[in-house]
């Protein structure tokens, strides 16, 4: 337990860390990679170049500090991070160096304002939070290893099929090279791929949502090829998978992880996705029609147009085969052929007025996934409609953040 004085100091200085979050994050990663270069492979270097990872780290530290006297308030964040840590293979012995580096970054950025009292308080707070993470991750490691077919670390899978789903999305059907049992997973979870790319000094690890219902034969991920755009470089791992990995090739994979999963409640469910955010919602849809045929399901997907819209025909077939499934598509930049053939239900983006026109009411469970602007827009629309937080569930592909952040 932290003493009252420590809690007071941490809570009062948390806003200062938030104010300087980007600078602290940048300094932290600069120091960390210099001290422990082997950790380089755990972080998405595109997010590093864009400054996303740096800001997310320090913002997470701020949230922990601001809620240090009631960490239950950030339980969902903690669960999400521990799932990712388990998937990446984070070890207890890595926490001390991370803590030392973080405190040094705070000192370097804040200078004389980072008094001994402040640093001592944050050191105690970090250790208390680290212990929570270590304990939860230990439980996850044990649960993962003990389930039928479970494993810790990486396991070799071969690409059984590589299927083009759209101009930018390709599915990879993965089977274990050892031929042994595949552990089950929950719809909405993801796999972590370790890519060993020729010419790269370090391995690169990425999370990709499983895009099919759990089964005993294979895992499927559906990956968007991230091309260069504005200030963002091409996605190193997505392009590697699209351009260099072929059927028969092997990949090192960590066991399924993630907390974006369907609740056991039986009320109607709405699956909303934008772009490649369709991958976890597709897994959910396929799972629901197999296991919960009486539950009312509304599937809504937003894409630029039919050329980049993956798995459209499959969703249409399910909506035709199952009377409890209704599907809608929204295209922000439809092609002329899309217009001629009326391939979409709405031109433009998904908004509250349109949602209210196609949904009977807001008494439903909402699950949504896609780019951060999409998530923020959907979350805000659902809030305005009065959907409580416990019925607004989302998966964020970016590093840790919150949709409530301005």
UniProtKB/TrEMBL annotation:
The record marks 29 as: Involved in heme-bound ligand stabilization and O-O bond activation. Binds 1 FAD per subunit. Residues 1-138 form the Globin domain. Its EC number is 1.14.12.17. CDD domains: flavohem_like_fad_nad_binding, Yhb1-globin-like. Residues 149-406 are annotated as: Reductase. Keywords: Detoxification, FAD, Flavoprotein, Heme, Iron, Metal-binding, NAD, NADP, Oxidoreductase, Oxygen transport, Transport. NADP(+) binds at residues 275-280. It is an enzyme of class 1 (oxidoreductase). It catalyses: 2 nitric oxide + NADH + 2 O2 = 2 nitrate + NAD(+) + H(+); 2 nitric oxide + NADPH + 2 O2 = 2 nitrate + NADP(+) + H(+). Consists of two distinct domains; an N-terminal heme-containing oxygen-binding domain and a C-terminal reductase domain with binding sites for FAD and NAD(P)H. The record marks 84, 395 as: Influences the redox potential of the prosthetic heme and FAD groups. One of its GO terms (molecular function) is nitric oxide dioxygenase NAD(P)H activity. It comes from Halobacillus naozhouensis. This is Flavohemoprotein. Residues 152-263 form the FAD-binding FR-type domain. Belongs to the globin family. Two-domain flavohemoproteins subfamily. Heme b binds at residue 85. HAMAP family: Hmp.
């Amino acid at each position: 337990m932290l003493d009252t004085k420590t809690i007071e100091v941490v809570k009062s200085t948390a806003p200062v860390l938030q104010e300087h979050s980007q600078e602290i994050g940048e300094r932290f990663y600069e120091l960390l990679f210099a001290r422990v270069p082997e950790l380089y492979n755990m972080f998405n270097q595109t997010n590093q170049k864009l400054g996303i990872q740096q800001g997310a780290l320090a913002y997470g530290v701020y949230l922990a500090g601001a809620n240090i006297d009631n960490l239950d308030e950030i339980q969902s964040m903690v669960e999400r991070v521990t799932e990712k840590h388990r998937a990446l293979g984070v070890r207890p012995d890595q926490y001390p160096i991370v803590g030392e580096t973080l405190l040094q970054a705070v000192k370097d950025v804040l200078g004389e304002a980072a008094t001994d009292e402040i640093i001592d308080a944050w050191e105690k707070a970090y250790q208390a939070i680290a212990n929570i993470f270590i304990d939860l991750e230990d439980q996850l490691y044990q649960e993962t290893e003990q389930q039928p077919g479970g494993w810790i670390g990486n396991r070799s899978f071969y690409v059984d099929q590589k299927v083009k789903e759209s101009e930018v999305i390709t599915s990879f059907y993965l089977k274990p090279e050892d031929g042994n049992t595949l552990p089950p997973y929950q719809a909405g979870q993801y796999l972590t791929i370790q890519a060993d790319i020729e010419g790269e000094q370090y391995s690169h690890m990425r999370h990709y949502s499983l895009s099919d219902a759990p089964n005993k034969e294979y895992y499927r991920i559906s990956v968007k090829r991230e091309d260069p755009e504005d200030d963002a470089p091409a996605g190193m791992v997505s392009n590697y998978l699209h351009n260099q990995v072929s059927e028969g090739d092997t990949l090192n994979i960590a066991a399924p992880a993630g907390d974006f999963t369907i609740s056991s409640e039986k009320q109607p469910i709405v699956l909303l996705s934008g772009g490649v955010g369709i991958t976890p919602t597709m897994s959910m849809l396929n799972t629901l029609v197999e296991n919960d045929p009486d539950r009312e399901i509304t599937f809504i997907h937003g894409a630029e147009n039919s050329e980049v819209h993956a798995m459209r025909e499959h969703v249409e077939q399910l909506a035709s085969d199952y009377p409890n499934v209704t599907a809608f598509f929204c295209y922000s930049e439809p092609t002329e052929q899309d217009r001629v053939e009326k391939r979409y239900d709405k031109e433009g983006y998904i908004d509250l007025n349109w949602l209210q026109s196609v949904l009977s009411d807001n008494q439903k469970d909402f699950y949504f996934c896609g780019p951060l602007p999409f998530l923020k827009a959907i979350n805000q629309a659902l809030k305005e409609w009065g959907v409580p937080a416990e019925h607004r569930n989302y998966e964020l592909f970016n590093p840790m953040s919150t949709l409530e952040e301005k």
